[in-house]
Design a protein that fits this description.
By secondary structure, the protein is of the alpha/beta class. The chain has helices spanning 36-41, 96-107, 112-129, 154-166, 198-205, 225-234, 248-258, 262-268, 286-294, 303-308, 316-321, 338-353, 361-368, 397-402, 424-439; strands at residues 2-11, 14-24, 27-33, 62-71, 73-78, 131-138, 169-176, 213-217, 240-244, 276-280, 298-301, 326-328, 380-383, 409-414, 417-420. Helix 3 (112-129) runs antiparallel to helix 15 and helix 5 (198-205) runs parallel beside helix 6.
Length: 440
């Protein structure tokens, strides 16, 4: 058992001074904020004051962690290989669809070794930014011509290994991708995503050697109507993710082909529910929002990607008021910054509503981060409260949401183990090497 005295930490919806936490087997076994009596007696502020005779002491070694400590951030939607596109696709005119062609080109440069290197560096950037877990939406499965590798899950296993090397907790969201659009065959650059049908996808997914695996319907564009239920059934008891209503053209195609919205189609197939995460959910009808709420389906917003691709502004406040759970993802890695994802969600709501204060800072932290609580993973992110960005901001939840930047992250702990100690330069060097090698 290890104990840490957190100088200032976000616990139970508030910033609290001098929080003693104990960690065993990667989870918090106690979380004890200082009492007013301890503050007045001078017990707080120094780990040396914690002795075996003190009721807040564990009797084991304690370490004091200065700064502003937050629960680890959760990245609920990621495509690791998109990191190679940053700075190369944000130029000139175009749309989501022209960006997609450039993304397919990068996907077809990958092999298990290069994908491991790129993903490891990308996950290391996530860790250095404060992310301690990632849901990796994985659909690059086979060789470029569609032939399976000798290990049919070679690329998925490369992602799992990359996450382990970077120190981030990963849930591999293995994705079913069967069509090039509603009623359209796959194009040449999409062949390596294809398993042939949902049954063969499910059989391959079942062979992945990792204890945290979920499934995904790429979108209603990429999985035909008669295959949706097969995917949903194959993920029973696991997480199920799906891109949905990211673009108006997707909704229009679904309505034209099936006479129903994408959310309605997923509900028909039994694909919505408390273990399902709908990603983007940008262009929804009122009935779509009701269905998401009625089924307790989570929605993962990816504001910096949705902004970068010109997708539109999703109805975050309307979903929240309907009782829908919200979370945040980095998606295309246009940037990797949990602080900016929270700011962007609020900022987009302000632009859409022409009103400020659509969510509190505490609510935004709830969407982005975990919890410092007994039984939760011992994931901690410590931020410098006196950097050029955070100095003078009060050192509270508003500092975290409205001032902090990944460069302010001093230390990251995942499952009770320190995985980042502030060396941002090394993260940049590793990314440069991995991405440069991929383009060469």
């Amino acid at each position: 058992m290890t104990s840490y005295l957190l100088e200032r930490a976000w616990v139970d919806g508030a910033m609290r001074d001098d929080v003693l936490v104990t960690v065993e087997d990667g989870v918090f076994t106690s979380v004890t904020p200082a009492t007013s009596a301890e503050v007045s007696s001078g017990v707080t502020g120094s780990a040396m004051a914690l002795t075996p005779g003190n009721p807040r002491s564990t009797g084991d070694s304690e370490a004091r962690i200065p700064g502003l400590t937050l629960p680890g951030f959760k990245n609920t939607h990621s495509h690791a290989f998109h990191r190679a596109l940053r700075g190369r696709v944000q130029v000139g005119e175009g749309s989501f669809w022209t960006w997609r062609d450039q993304m397919y080109d990068v996907a077809n440069r990958l092999d298990p070794d290069s994908y491991h290197d790129l993903a490891r560096a990308t996950y290391a950037e996530m860790v250095a930014a404060g992310f301690t877990s990632v849901s990796e939406f994985h659909y690059v499965h086979h060789q470029p011509d569609g032939t399976p590798y000798d290990d049919p899950n070679a690329l998925g296993h490369a992602l799992v290994a990359a996450a382990a090397d970077a120190g981030i907790r990963i849930r591999l969201i293995d994705t079913c991708y069967l069509a090039g659009g509603i009623g359209q065959p796959l194009g040449p650059l999409q062949r390596r995503f294809d398993d042939g049908d949902a049954d063969r996808w499910a059989a391959r997914m079942a062979e992945i050697e990792h204890d945290q695996v979920g499934g995904a319907i790429h979108s209603v564009r990429a999985v035909p109507r008669d295959q949706l239920a097969t995917v949903a059934d194959a993920t029973h008891g696991r997480e199920l993710h799906v891109h949905v209503s990211e673009q108006p053209a997707e909704n229009e195609a679904c309505l034209a082909a099936y006479g129903i919205t994408p959310i309605g189609l997923l509900a028909e197939a039994g694909a919505l529910g408390p273990r399902t995460t709908a990603v983007h959910a940008t262009h929804l009808t009122d009935r779509d929002i009701e269905l998401l709420a009625e089924t307790d389906t989570e929605v993962s917003f990816c504001p910096t990607t949705e902004r970068d691709l010109g997708d539109g502004i999703g109805p975050a406040r309307a979903l929240y008021e309907a009782g829908v759970r919200l979370s945040l993802g980095s998606d295309s890695q246009a940037i990797i910054d949990p602080f900016d994802e929270m700011r962007a969600l609020e900022g987009h709501e302000r632009l859409a509503s022409i009103r400020r204060g659509r969510f509190t800072a505490g609510q935004l932290l709830g969407f982005g981060a975990g919890r410092i609580a007994v039984g939760e993973p011992a994931d901690l992110v410590t931020v410098d409260p006196a950097s050029p960005r955070t100095a003078g901001t009060g050192g509270d939840e508003h500092t975290a949401v409205y001032a902090a930047h990944p460069a302010d992250v001093r230390r990251v702990m995942v499952g009770g183990r320190v995985v980042f100690d502030g060396d941002h330069a090394q993260v940049g060097a590793d990314l440069d090497r991995a991405i440069g090698g991929l383009w060469r």
